[in-house]
Each structure stands twice: as C-alpha cells, then as structure tokens.
Amino acid sequence: MNHLTELHHQNGVRMTERNGKTVPARYNSPEQEHLAVRRHILLSDYSHFGQAKISGESAWELLNVLVSGDVSSIRDEQAMYTLMLDDDGKIITDLYILCDEEHYLLISEWLSGDELCEKMQAVLISRGDEFDEIDEIVALDDHGILHIEGPYSWELLVERYGIDVAGLPFQEHMHVADELTLLRSGKHGEYSYKLMGEYAELAEAWPQLVEAGEKFDMRCGGLDYQQQVRLENPCWQPETLSHLSRCPIELQLQWMVRYDKDDFIGLSALKARLEAGPDNRVIGMSIEGQPEWFPQRGEQVWLDGEVVGQVIECGYSADLDKTIGRLFLDTRFAWADLPGFSVRSSGGQEIMLKTAAVPFARNYSFLVNPTEHSYIDTSRPRDLLQQLEWQKAREEEERAAAAATSNE
User: Fold this and answer.
1) 358 belongs to a structural domain
2) Cα–Cα distance, 353 to 365 (Å, whole number)
3) Which of 145, 151, 317, 149 is nearest to 220 (CA)?
C-alpha cells in the first residue's frame, strides 16, 4: 500500500484494480463524476498507469522502433500519444511518451512499468547493435499520477502552480512544485492534465487540490466515470475491443500510425493489411432518445435482411438525449450517417438505428478560453455563450444610450 491508497482508504472510498494497481472506483456517483468532467473539474487517481524511464543518446532511436509514432518529432517538454504494436501489427497498448532533458518517460494505462521495460529491453536485445548508447531502462514503481480533468481544470492548476499552466499547449509538460511533472493530455475531449511524481508527493498534493477545488465545485472521482465519457469519446480499451480486433486500421486508429517512418515493429504487417483492405471497421451508432431496451454487446446488426456486423457497446447520453455506441461493421457499410440498420433482441424485438461519426460529446471545454473566461472571477464571463450574452447586452445598452442622446 502506498501513500495515496492509504489516503483513499481513510476516506472510505470503494476501490478497484486495474493494470495491477489498486485505485478508487468512485468517490461520488458516476453521474456526478461525469457531470464534473463535462462542466466543472474531476480529480482522480490514475496511478494504474505504468511508468518507465529510458535515458541515453540512442533512447529516441530505440523508442522509434518500438512505437508507431515518430519520436524524433518531439523535443524537451513535449509529449506524444502513440501505439505499441506486435509483429502482426496488432495493438499491445496505447501510451504517452514524454521527452525530458535527460530521459524519455513512458506511461501506459494497460501495461505496468515492468512490462514497459520488458518491451524496451526486447528491442535492445534483438537490435542492440543499432543503439550505441542506452544508459538506463527502469520502471518507476514508486510513482503515481493524479488526473485533473474538466473545462476549468486549467484555472485550478493556475491557482496551485502558476500562470504558466494556462499557456501549456496540448501534449506538452512542465515541472511544478520542484518534484512533480504536469502533462496536458487526455482522452475524453475536455481540458485534462496528469500530475506525475512519487506517491508521497502526490498524497500531499491531493488534499491541497481538494481544498483549492471547492470554489470550482470540483468532485473527486474513481475510474467508474470512464464508462460514460469513453462511450461519448471512444478510445483504445482492450476489454471492449480486443475480442473483435486489435488492428489500428479496423479500429479507425490509423491516425496514430506514421507509415512514412523507416521502420517500426508491425509496420510491414500493417502495410500489407492496408493494401489488402480491412473486412470490417468500427463506426459509431445512434438512436434518437432512450428506447425501451438497448442493443447489447455482440448482438447482430442487420441491413436489408443481411447480417453486416455486431454491436460493440451501447448506452444513453442524457446530454445528447441519444442512445449512442459503436458497431463493428462490414467495411462496405462502415460510413457515418447511414440509416436502415437494425438490431434484434433475443425476445424478437427490433430497433432501428443509423451509423454516426465519433466522438459524440459536445465538449464544453471548446467554449472555455483561459485568456478570456473564468469560473470564479465574476468580472469575466464563464464561457463563450455568456461572453456573447454580455456583448449583446452591452450593444443594446450602447444603442439605447445613443438613441437617448439623439432625442435630446
């Protein structure tokens, strides 16, 4: 047990296990935590992410063989989101790679630090003559991650760690509070930051963030909220997708692959798959409103009397007032906004649906600009909509004043 899990146990939180780590399942209800992500701030313990470090002049070259992205494209204080594939071009994990002055840091939601090290060591052993200088490959077992997510998470972190946070670009990081690293990144579409460091340091940061977050209506959360936000903003989830496919092309994750790189593990298999063309692809689905029953995972999808795929996941979004999800369809039909598909329940009921583009969520963060808006400063509007309302009101006042002057 580390300092963070001790803190959660003291708070009486229901815990869960992911990636070999014990972390909170929830602090509040999933609905409250989902609302916090979409409208305020949610603070979660993301210490289930495995962390590993590699250093040395040849570190970037080794990583460039290991992942599908181009590691040479990032510099100090930058990061990238990429994939690790096997020889058959199938996804092992998604991961972030951070470039620091002295090393690269790898973090993965689905592999432990030791497993990340094993993957790097395997490349070093098989192709060691290509890498002249590798100083260290080590798992950071004493490190965890706090996840601060939501449209006003930047404002909370500005208050805690300084104004530079407001200008931190997406997929870049900075050092704060001497011992901690703050990475701006996320999978759910809202402003999102990962605060990384030793467990003891994070256990001190947690109550400080909780206290500072009260004025932002911040909630503490676990991992259960991910079910809803990842329905709205899908990402790589092995428990949801791997039984169907681990191919980036079929899963519409080919945007994470740099085909113009000289070489990386799985490249030749992916190129062959791309040339042959996939038989199936993932596509979104939607049903207006909330039906009496929901299509279930694995149920067949029909079109004109033919089975053309199956349901991956399905659920209701109150924000959209739609039932949304994803399908694994015959490539011929895996295009957005096509009607006429249906799913039949075991009881013989049939429900009609259409395909849809993903992501689904209308991310509130798109309406919030750190240079113009604030949740707590009443002299500034909270978001673009309020800003437009204030502007309209000022214009009406100006017109009224001008009319009064002309009448005089």
Assistant:
1) no
2) 29
3) 149
Whole-model pTM: value is: 0.94
Band (pLDDT 50/70/90 cuts) for residue 404 is: confident
Q: Residue 76's closest CA among 102, 48, 114?
A: 102
State the Cα–Cα distance between residues 268 and 360, nearest whole angstrom: 33
Count of structural domains within the chain: 1
CATH number at residue 47: 3.30.1360.120
In a domain, 63, yes or no: yes
- Domain assignment of residue 194, given as a range: 3-228
Mean pLDDT of 17-46: 95
Average predicted confidence (pLDDT) for the chain: 94
**Torsion sign over Cα 238, 242, 247, 253:** negative
In angstroms, the CA 328 to CA 244 distance is 8
Burial 359-383 (b: 16+ CB within 10 A, else e): bbbebbbebbebeebbbeeeeebbb
CA distances (Å), origin 97, targets 116, 165, 407: 11, 20, 66
Find out whether 84 and 66 touch, Cβ atoms under 8 Å. yes
Residue 391 — very low, low, confident or very high, per pLDDT cuts 50/70/90? very high
Given the DSSP bridges, would you call strands 192-198 and 173-176 parallel, antiparallel or unpaired? unpaired
Q: Residue 408 — very low, low, confident or very high, per pLDDT cuts 50/70/90?
A: low
